[in-house]
Amino acid sequence: MADQQRADARRNYARILAVAEQEVAAHGADASLERIARVAGVGSATVRRHFPGRRALLQAVFAERIEALTARAAALTDAADPEAALRDWLAALTDYAASARGMADALAQDRLTEPEDVQSCAAKLVGALEPLVERAGRAGAVAGDATAADLVTLVTGIALATEHHPDPAAEAHRLLDLTWRGAGRAA
Q1: Spatial distance between the Cα atoms of 102 and 100, rounded to a whole number of angstroms
Q2: Pairwise CA distance, residues 92 & 180, whole Å
Q3: Which of 181, 187, 4, 171 has the alpha carbon at shortest distance from 83?
Q4: Torsion of CA 81, 83, 89, 90, to 10 degrees
Q5: Which pTM was predicted?
Q6: Dist. CA 113–CA 102, nearest whole Å
Q7: Rounded Cα gap, residues 107 and 29, in angstroms
Q8: How big, in percent rounded to 5, are the helix, strand and coil portions of the chain?
Q9: CA proximity to 122, closest of 139, 109, 105, 134
Q10: Is the pLDDT of residue 114 over 80?
Q11: What is the DSSP letter of 165?
């Protein structure tokens, strides 16, 4: 019985986190905890048992997305085409940045997290991206002086610039592609 309860709790946690990610993407960091519970098919007490407050839920969503991006970078590290691997990962980061709708800013501005936490996440992303940038650089697919931090900054800037566009993700991808075609190749 205890194993079944733990399995149910893990499923509920995963379902709540998945719904929270969708709700945050659609409504920003102000997504309703009650709506998250309703869409996940659990009671608000279950949400609060797993995530005692908005801060804990947003941090869990944020951390899961960062971990997924770092895992994707690791999976792409040995891809046959270094340029395609780098572009694939940058597209995934663009999807994330465009869908987060200011979550990192909300976490920091609302004092739901410390600036060091946001910096730590950025450092994880840069660290995960570095091998892809190095391989793409050796293949001549990216400017020799381009760094992983530069590319994360570019994607972040594109996401911020397109945040209020009617279709932020599509516009962010268009601008990323334009940037890549215009500045992605070594001169």
Answers
A1: 6
A2: 15
A3: 181
A4: -170
A5: 0.78
A6: 14
A7: 8
A8: 80, 0, 20
A9: 105
A10: no
A11: S
